[in-house]
Amino acid sequence: MVDYRLTTMEDVDNLVLLRIVFLQEAEEVGSSSSVEELKKSLYSYFKEKIPNKLFVSWLAEDEGKIIATSDLSFHVVPPSYENPSGEEAYLMNMYTLPEYRKQGIGGNLLDRTVNEARKRGIRKIRLHTTDIGKSIYEKKGFVETKSEMVLLLV
Questions:
Q1: For residues 46 and 14, what is the distance between their CA atoms, to the nearest angstrom?
Q2: What's the whole-model pTM score?
Q3: Which has fewest Cβ within 10 Å: 7, 15, 54, 64?
Q4: For residues 87 and 93, what is the distance between their CA atoms, to the nearest angstrom?
Q5: pLDDT tens-digit profile of 116-145?
Q6: Which of 8, 23, 3, 22 is closest to 97 using CA atoms?
Q7: Cα 43 to Cα 37: distance, rounded to the nearest angstrom
Q8: What DSSP designation does 99 have?
Q9: Widest pairwise Cα distance in the chain
Q10: Which domains are assigned to the chain?
């Protein structure tokens, strides 16, 4: 039986590992030294953002084993007509272990994550998707936009 719960500080090790697995599967693999650097950065991020409620994660567990995650990062942008508060959430790291896919777990996590944003009065959730995950977001009402461009400063 799958159980769902919010992440606690005790889950940081698992969050770091799941984020790295997710990125590796999404083909954003770096060198081993960049993986170690990423781990350190992720630990710092989670340890700062979770207690300050700027990051929320729902986990799915099967007999105590974490099998899936869905994460929200909260931030504020300048207000607009569509979003007068400027408060937004960024959905990230929706990930289910391959052997647990196609069982509704991701959809259940996504529902819980979206409800977390609603509880906070968030009116806009953004995300980037992989081809594998696109259909789940569309089923839940997310729409694709053409308005976002990115400049990566390296």
A1: 11
A2: 0.86
A3: 64
A4: 20
A5: 999 999 988 999 888 888 899 999 999 888
A6: 22
A7: 10
A8: G
A9: 46
A10: 2-139 (3.40.630.30)
57: burial class by Cβ within 10 Å (0-12, 13-18, 19+)?
Answer: buried
In whole angstroms, how far apart are CA 88 and each of 12, 23, 59?
23, 23, 21
User: What 3-state class would DSSP assign to 113?
Assistant: helix
Q: Which two tokens stand for residue 150?
A: 């990115």
What is the rounded distance in angstroms from the CA atom of residue 44 to the CA atom of residue 54? Answer: 13
Q: CB atoms < 10 A from the CB of 24, how many? A: 12
Sign of CA dihedral 63, 68, 72, 73: positive
- Express each pLDDT in 12-65 by its tens digit: 999 999 999 888 888 766 666 688 999 999 999 999 999 999 999 999 999 999
Strands 125-127 and 87-96: parallel
